[in-house]
Amino acid sequence: MNDDELKQLFARQDTAHDDSARDKALKAAMAAFDEAQAEGKAEQEKTYSATQGSATMSRLIPDHQPVGRKAMNTITADSPVKRWTFSALASAAVLVLGVFITLQMPWQAGMEPAGQTPPYRETRDDALPSSPKVALEERAVQAEQELGSVASESHIVVLDADASASAQAASAAPPPQVARTERKLQAAPAAAAARVEADGFAVPALAARIDPMPPRGYQETGRDRFEAVEANPVKRVSEAPVSTFSIDVDTAAYSFVRRQLNQGVLPQKAAVRVEEMINYFPYDYPAPHSSDQPFDTHVTLMDAPWKPGNKLVHIGIQGYEIQGEQPRSNLVFLLDVSGSMNSPDKLPLVKQSMGLLLSRLQPEDTVSIVVYAGAAGTVLEPTPAKEKQKILDALNRLQAGGSTAGAAGIQLAYQLAESQLVKDGVNRIILATDGDFNVGINNREELKGFVERKRESGVFLSVLGFGQGNYHDALMQTLAQNGNGVAAYIDTLGEAQKVLVHEATSALFPIAKDVKIQVEFNPATVSEYRLLGYETRLLKEEDFNNDAVDAGDIGAGHSVTAIYEITPVGSDSGVFAPSRYRATEADSSKSGEYGFLKLRYKLPDEDESRLITQPIEVNARQSEGLVREARFATAVAGFAELLRGGKYSGDWTWADALGLAQANRGDDPYGYRAELVQLIRKAEVAKAM
Amino acid sequence: MAETFTDKRTGSQQETIKRAQRGDREAFSRLLEDHYALMYRFAFKYCGQRADAEDVTQQACVKLARVLPQFRFQSAFSTWLYRLVINCALDWHRKQTATGDPELADSAVEGNAEPAVMLRQVLTRVQAMGEGYCETLVLVHGEGLTHAEAAAVLELKESTVSWRLHEIRKRLQREQQPGVEV
Predict the structure, then answer these.
(1) Residue B181's beta-bridge partner residues?
(2) Where are the beta strands (DSSP E) in A556-640?
(3) pLDDT tens-place string over residues A229-264
(4) Domains of chain A
(5) Which residues form the VWFA domain (chain A) (predicted)?
(6) What is the pLDDT of residue A648?
(7) What is the ipTM for the molecules in this complex?
(8) Which domain holds residue B31?
(9) Share in percent of chain B as helix, strand, coil (round to 5)
């Protein structure tokens, strides 16, 4: 379809408007105009500096109001009898709701061992109403009052009506509860409501007041927070020949995507990070032999399956696997036991995961446990791993409840880790949370500053994400990226097994830190390139040689893969039109290279970086194994691209991704790759729905 | 192509806008009457459907009433108005996809169905290419704006507009001929 046809298509449309629709729209707009003017005047009388109008959009209002609305509008109800009936009904409804919530509340929300009050409760108790139940009742009263004041002029009438209505409605609830609640209601303590206000619970929405502390096993939905990033654009080699980024061994994105797909929905685009999907899988790259140069780089070239003419450059990095004895480790488990963790896929899974990790520790390694909810506290002083039962007991006592003072927890954990610092060993905090910090520092920038200062001390940080519905990915990424850490997302016990048992060495023992990659493309052979993923990890060109700039870390045995899509000179598969004026000077002496790969890293206890270089040769000899691994990585990258909307994957389809992944599964001892094949099928189904 | 938004009576139009901004009811009403047809036409080309276009236009009119004071005469009124309609259309589209309305299912087609259906098919495909493509297509091919004018409306670089159009053309072409291996 060419331009003229497109124009014709538009021109052939009957775009004459309907007069009645026009009149309706004009009327609505005039009404909005009058309203805006009235508001504007009122606003201007108050203050001259305020801007007029507002950018929020009004809802469409039908010509005839629905009947139900009129029925509910008790002020305009024509007879007093009606008015009372309506308000009584509304109040009864609130009361019943209140009773239900009260009954479902866990009586105590803490993790204290029997007969002992942990320190954090003391610090918060004075600020809170004496028990969660009372707080709820107060809130119910307040909600009631609100409804009441809207619905009728007289409180007493409403409350009386209440009593009889609820007596009938509450047959399902134990009588003492109802009686208590009723007494509260009849007292109508305005003072109590005022105290609730003063305590900082004043939230405009009625629903928020009724549900300030979630009942047991609650599940939020639709509040997962991800930072949206634009996919890396295609770049001209003639304009930006150098590409620099930090490596990223996180795997969180893949597990989150898997979880969503297993539920039959496509993940939100921002949740899909290509590099984390690729790096989720272990790749069978030849391993280096000594810890002096802790990793080898492998470059593989192949044709881009989604765009004929383009090529893919795979850069595979294989980390050194620890031989012999494990270094001693000092681990601090920092566990979130706030109310939001109260869900089967959160705290119970955290406990199981930590139990798994214990099995991989040596007898002399120390473990301590710090928890945080409304405040932070130490639950287990540093204990050697050989006292396994003691650690497990401490874990099993934990219960979830209360708000989330995440920052205080992090501070305490760093303190504890530093106090036990093991020279020549591994000092690591393992944070398990859903990322919802709401007490103390909850500003991401501030937290970032804090962990940035702390990483100097030699303590590493691993972030394990749990749960969904209220998962704050952005915060976890910030912590992991700036605190010398990795982020993983644990959705099932199987994933915990992968991260904490099979890959425990990579999760625990860093072999290199601040690993940066820089590729300079040869303008004589490459015209355009695009880096797949790593959007959140891009570095400035000059940062590559600056050792003060932080970058990603690699654990023992980790493999990392980065993929570039390049358009060789002379191929017409690029996205840029050829420049009419810019002459391309060909440097024939280097025409056998597509580019030059440079890699900088520091050994874990050093501050000066080392350099590895390797040319990317046009006709490099490639082993069969490497090609297979590269193909599989390509299948994952293509799948991720499709999940992100397919901007760069041309007309590649799910079936193509499936075929490519299927054909290059290799050994796959743990079945991770087979699982990807299933996921692609599920994505295809989810997409079709 | 039909007349562009650049009003020949720019002076008098400016006067009308200013009066409407100060709260002159009649001036605002005239402004609406002058521009309703254009807004509707644009909305129709974006949505490809009468009922939806009417909704979007009505929303845009209501929004105009609220945000007109924010117009600072830094660009042509038409440019600003296009942006407003696009924003309303985007909101509408977001809601549409959120509620999961099957797009072509309610084919309550009116008299001249065929071009409308064709248009809707093209729009759906362009929509699938990514964000921003549809607006670009409608502004340039539907409304006859130059690339520079469209770029001003979308607050983009001119080259981006050109590139998007190129991409749209290329991909539509590819999808048209399924027999050809690409």
Answers:
(1) none
(2) 559-568, 593-602, 610-617
(3) 788 889 888 888 999 999 888 888 898 899 889 888
(4) 71-210 (no CATH), 235-322+511-571+589-688 (2.60.40.1230), 329-508 (3.40.50.410)
(5) 330-508
(6) 86
(7) 0.75
(8) 10-176
(9) 75, 0, 25
